[in-house]
């Protein structure tokens, strides 16, 4: 006699990753609650006759905080599944502006989860989130969430699992919490089904194994466009931008160590699982196919273990977002079977064996081993490519040159050898660049307008990344504060033109990861400085950037009140300084400010529009 299906309610359903896995394990998904219309449309597309979910599924496209669970009370719901948005606990959130955890409204969504658990009273729930949740904000949100579940009468088991250990061709760590009411039962997470931690299981599923039948054997290697596109062809499989760093042994680096995130120019090793697929990748964000292109939607579905026939609604970017935000269905299916067989339909004959006492996953050690392996790959590749290189480019001889730079706005620039005519509408600057040994002296003066202030910028510690330059001093006269952006643009030109670096950030390093090798200081002349000039000096120092500061830290230096601090920060953003505060980034607390770099963002692609908290 077939078992009765397990009636299940899905919360924060997304595109259905958990739901697909639980459905395949014999769970009957009666309802899905999902706020995002495109995601809800994908769920709708897959319900109905001859569809994966069947016609009984109800899709509720609404905010869970307003969702009324009454229709699911008293109808035999045995299981609730789902996990709230993870941005307030994620590593990406920490990098973009900090983790608020349960302080942020999104971090309080577990309360709605608990409200629905209390109303529906299932025997079991399965809650998933980012692996960093237990450690976020010293563990305070984690304790609060666990206590909330415990007060509802649930015993909890929690573990971080790598989806690759369960047959997914992708390394993706997720925190899984299983809560159950029947304390006469016990639950243990299933043993890995694949890889070295499994008991005689198959190897981890490689990308090649997962998508081989989707490949065109005649497909040529692609040429990727854009600023960094030509480098993608040079990246060995399994490596990323760090291949081009001095730390990896690249003879003439393109990037400082940790100047980008690890997905930047990441090209997969086709014979291994991929790194985590991102929901909102940038143009140069991997994983990239070994043919130097982005993966197609059918390929990405395979890497996330979605069924081929499962339809996702929306344009390419929205579909990629849905895939990247999903729990891999294959991992969900293994969890679902273990929950069913240990807690809801107990049986001694388990499809997936329970972990024994003392089991310890090795995926973190394997992660370190992979890093060391790819360092060796880089070392061998560099030795082979540069086997005939006996010396690097000779340093430039000591030199001194003069030219004129004209700007219309921030980004329209021209360089002239001769002084421009006075009737020009552009702002012109006389530039004198003198190079002596490993030092650059740069003198910048506006012409055709009156200069009223002097600024001095000093940069040191460059020789770790630049082959022949260790320091730079720029002395510039200013007509107005917009001149500062143009001065920094000229500094970037001076530092990059005799190197393979593309931008100042590539040299300085990403604010969240850099090792503080490059030091920057800024001084504006005069005893009577405006609050804005004091703010420029303060944030123009590398000592005050890349870390959260309280209002009082800034007020004591600039000698202004909290309201003026906020006004100054927004003014600096207009000048393209990436100063972040609650009014611009929802994940920053009310009493904190973060300035990412001690210089303005020089790329016209960098967006600094003002975004208020939700």
> Which whole number gives the mean pLDDT?
90
Strand content: 15-25%
What share of the residues lie within helices?
A: 25-40%
Question: What would you report as the Rg, rounded to the nearest angstrom?
Answer: 28 Å
The domain tally reads: 4
Provide the CATH architecture of the largest domain: 3-Layer(aba) Sandwich
Strand order of the largest sheet: 3-2-1-4-5-7-6
In whole angstroms, the N-to-C terminal distance is 52 Å
Number of beta strands: 19
Q: Name the structural class.
A: alpha/beta
State the helix count. Answer: 16
Largest sheet: 7 strands, mixed
Q: Would you identify the regions where 5 or more consecutive residues have pLDDT less than 50?
A: 89-106, 610-614
CATH class value of the largest domain:
Alpha Beta
CATH H-level homologous superfamily name of the largest domain:
Vaccinia Virus protein VP39
For this structure, the quaternary state is single chain
Query: What's the CATH topology name of the largest domain?
Result: Rossmann fold
Outline? globular
């Amino acid at each position: 006699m077939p078992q009765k299906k397990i009636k299940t309610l899905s919360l924060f359903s997304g595109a259905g990753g958990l739901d697909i896995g639980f459905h395949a394990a014999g769970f009957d998904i009666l309802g899905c609650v999902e706020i995002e219309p495109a995601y809800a449309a994908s769920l709708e597309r897959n319900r109905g006759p001859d569809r994966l979910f069947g016609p009984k599924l109800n899709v509720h496209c609404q905010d869970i905080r307003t969702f009324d669970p009454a229709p699911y009370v008293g109808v035999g719901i045995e299981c609730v599944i789902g996990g709230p948005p993870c941005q307030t606990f994620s590593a990406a959130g920490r990098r973009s502006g900090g983790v608020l955890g349960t302080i942020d409204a999104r971090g309080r969504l577990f309360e709605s989860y608990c409200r629905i658990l209390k109303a529906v009273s299932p025997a079991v729930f399965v809650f998933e989130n980012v692996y960093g949740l237990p450690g976020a904000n010293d563990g305070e949100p984690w304790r609060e969430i666990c206590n909330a579940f415990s007060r509802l009468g649930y015993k909890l088991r929690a573990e971080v699992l790598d989806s690759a250990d369960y047959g997914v061709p992708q390394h993706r760590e997720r925190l899984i919490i299983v809560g159950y009411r029947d304390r006469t039962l016990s639950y243990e997470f299933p043993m890995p089904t694949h890889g070295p931690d499994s008991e005689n299981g198959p190897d981890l599923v490689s990308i090649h194994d997962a998508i081989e039948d989707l490949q065109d054997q005649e497909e040529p290697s692609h040429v990727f466009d854009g600023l960094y596109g030509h480098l993608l062809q040079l990246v060995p499989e399994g490596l990323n931008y760090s291949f081009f760093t001095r730390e990896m042994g690249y003879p003439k680096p393109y990037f400082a160590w940790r100047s980008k995130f690890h997905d930047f120019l990441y090209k997969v090793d086709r014979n291994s699982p991929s790194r985590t697929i991102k929901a909102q990748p940038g143009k140069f964000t991997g994983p990239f196919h070994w043919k130097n292109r982005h993966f197609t939607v059918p390929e990405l579905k395979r890497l996330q273990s979605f069924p081929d026939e499962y339809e996702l609604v929306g344009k390419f970017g929205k579909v990629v977002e849905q895939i990247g935000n999903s729990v891999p269905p294959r991992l969900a299916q293994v969890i679902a079977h273990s929950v069913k067989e240990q807690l809801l339909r107990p049986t001694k004959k388990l499809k997936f064996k329970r972990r024994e006492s003392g089991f310890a996953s090795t995926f973190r050690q394997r992660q370190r081993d992979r890093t060391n392996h790819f360092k060796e790959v880089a070392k061998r590749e560099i030795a082979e490519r540069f086997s005939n290189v006996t010396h690097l480019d000779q340093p430039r001889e000591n030199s001194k040159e003069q030219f004129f730079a004209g700007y219309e706005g921030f980004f329209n620039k021209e360089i002239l050898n001769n002084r421009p005519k006075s009737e020009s509408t552009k702002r012109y600057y006389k530039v004198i660049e003198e190079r002596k040994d490993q030092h650059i002296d740069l003198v910048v003066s506006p012409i055709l307008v009156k200069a009223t202030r002097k600024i001095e910028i000093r940069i040191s510690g460059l020789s770790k990344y630049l082959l022949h330059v260790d320091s730079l001093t720029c002395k510039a006269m200013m007509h107005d504060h917009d001149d500062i952006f143009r001065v920094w643009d000229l500094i970037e030109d001076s530092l990059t033109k005799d190197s393979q670096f593309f931008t100042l950030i590539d040299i300085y390093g990403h604010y969240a990861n850099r090792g503080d090798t490059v030091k920057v200081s800024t001084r504006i002349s005069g005893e009577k400085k405006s609050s804005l000039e004091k703010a420029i000096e303060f944030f123009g120092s590398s000592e005050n950037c890349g870390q959260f500061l309280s209002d009082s830290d800034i007020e004591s230096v600039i000698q202004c009140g909290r309201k003026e601090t906020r006004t100054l920060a927004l003014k600096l953003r207009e000048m393209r300084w990436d100063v972040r505060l609650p009014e611009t980034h929802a994940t920053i607390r009310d009493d904190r400010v973060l300035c990412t770099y001690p210089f303005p963002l020089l790329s016209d692609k960098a967006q600094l529009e003002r975004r208020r908290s939700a």
